[in-house]
Amino acid sequence: MENSRVDTLVVGGGIAGMQAALDLADQGFQVALVEREPSIGGKMITLSKVFPTLDFCSCMTTTKMSAVAHHPNIQLLTYCELQSVEETAEGYRVSVMQKPRYVDASKCTGCRSCEYECPITVPSPFDRGLGAYRAIRVPFSTAVPQIAVLDMDNCILCGKCEKICAANAVDFTQQPEILEVQTTAVVMATGFEMTPLGAKKEYGGGELHNVVDPLMMERFLAPTGPYGRVLRPGDGKEPTSIAYVQCAGSRDQTLGVEYCSRVCCMYAIKQAMLLSGALPMADITIYYMDIRTFGKGYEQFYQNAQAMGVEFVRGKVASIHQDDQQNPVVKVELTEEGRIVERTHDIVVLSLGMLPAFGSNGTLHLTTGSDGFIDIPSPNSDPCATARPGIFVTGTAMGPMDIVDSIVTASAAAATASAYIRAHNYGQVAAALSEPQEEAAYA
Ligand SMILES: Cc1cc2nc3c(=O)[nH]c(=O)nc-3n(C[C@H](O)[C@H](O)[C@H](O)COP(=O)(O)OP(=O)(O)OC[C@H]3O[C@@H](n4cnc5c(N)ncnc54)[C@H](O)[C@@H]3O)c2cc1C
Ligand code: SF4
Ligand code: SF4
Question: How confident is the model at residue 428 (pLDDT cuts 50, 70, 90)?
């Protein structure tokens, strides 16, 4: 058991959690960042390019990841889960479970020799199952930290990794460890999950090979993706016709997701533009009921896509089936023309919506709204404060939003937490602020 005392515990190492942690750490506060995965980066590190600027996501995200890892005021706790949270006179005492990596983090150099030697391959969740990795691996090429993790569920205990590791880092006997963290404030940045691909049975997601989810398409389009090009998952053919079905997981009472997920129109338009560049001869169609491009520069982005030749078809998609060549066939009611047509494509992408990743498992006793996202009792006057004192929320843990808004709310949550800590934690803050401040690691 290990104990530490911090000013803020940030839960979740996506873009929102990283930004909140950096903002607080730059002010001299001590921060612990807890991430359940073996690397920080969240969804953003898996994306190709970012709307509306079309900058590379990996370049933008790795800068923040490495700033977090090297910041002297941030303690990074990856592959960790919250176990329990107890309210104390000074804030919260949080038990964090360090899950076993079966690799000694203090010895591993990230050389990947174990990975090259391991005979077992498993589908890689980072590549949405399109690529494979080994039972022991550094999670992905730009992972932070660069420390291997062994997946005991698939390991056959052949011992090859242990033998090849020059650092003697592989440890099959590792056990979970509990770390006790005393903190004044907590920032929840637990992010989102996609609505399930197979939720709307009539769209064939999860059944038809060439009906895919949008994060898969991000991996096809990413320079770090599994194939370095866009291929049909069903048979490896280069597609010449790609379609998007909007609101395939949002604004739908039958799924219990009545809200607009706010990013689906923009990511579909972005992917359509990137596909136009990657496959100049391909036809790209977006079936939609409304296009919602609400952000700064977003309407122009939509108009650019139209000018590039992306076809926008107003219609309600009733169902998708496949023909005998595994081509998805979309049955759509063209609402403006009042007729129903069937159109065949090579790949159909379902523009899925956002669900909260935060499960109210009782650990933090936070209430959630009717949409399932963490509840904010006074959104107009205190937009990052939850119902519990000293616990703040940011990014898509609050509700669906894009990267710009995730960063804005992260800085807002950090500012609110900072004021709270200054008011509640005089000793620690005075000590921190009297010391000379380290220069921001990412300035
Ligand atoms: C297909 C697609 C394309 C997109 N493209 C764009 C785009 O081009 N431009 C744009 O602005 N936005 C885009 N977005 C939206 C963007 O991905 C999100 O706005 C952003 O990633 C939200 O960041 P976040 O930190 O809130 O959440 P996340 O990225 O989900 O990060 C949350 C982190 O918290 C961790 N976590 C969750 N629960 C726990 C727990 N209990 N304990 C510890 N850790 C936990 C998770 O593992 C994760 O690392 C896209 C979204 C999708 C689905
Ligand atoms: S466990 Fe050993 S072989 Fe594997 S990456 Fe770490 S140091 Fe290299
Ligand atoms: S012991 Fe497990 S992780 Fe190591 S090489 Fe063998 S199968 Fe891979």
Answer: low
Ligand 1 atom closest to 217 (CA): 1
Name the least confident of 90-94, 324-328, 366-370.
Answer: 366-370
What H or E segment, with its residue span, contains residue 303?
A: helix 298-307
Q: Is the pTM of this model over 0.85?
A: yes
By the 10 Å C-beta count (0-12 exposed, 13-18 middle, 19+ buried), 338 is classed as exposed
- Which residues sit with their C-beta closer than 6 Å to ligand 1? 11-17, 34-37, 42-44, 47, 50-51, 81-82, 189-192, 194, 214-215, 218, 263, 267, 270, 357, 395-396, 401-404, 406
Please tell me the distance between residue 105's alpha carbon and the centre of ligand 3 in angstroms.
Answer: 17
- Of the listed ranges 11-20, 338-347, 366-375, 413-422, the least confidently predicted one is 366-375
- Cα–Cα nearest to 43, from 67, 70, 15: 15
pLDDT of residue 435: 59
Whose Cα sits closest to atom 8 in ligand 2? 111
Tokens of 317: 């998609």
Q: Are 103 and 169 in contact (CB under 8 A)?
A: yes
- Measured between alpha carbons, how far is 46 from 211 in angstroms, rounded to an integer? 20
Within 8 A by CB and 6+ apart from 70, the residues are 441
The Cα 441–Cα 145 span in angstroms is 16
Concatenating the DSSP letter of every residue in 389-432 gives TTEEE-GGGTSS--HHHHHHHHHHHHHHHHHHHHHH-HHHHHHH
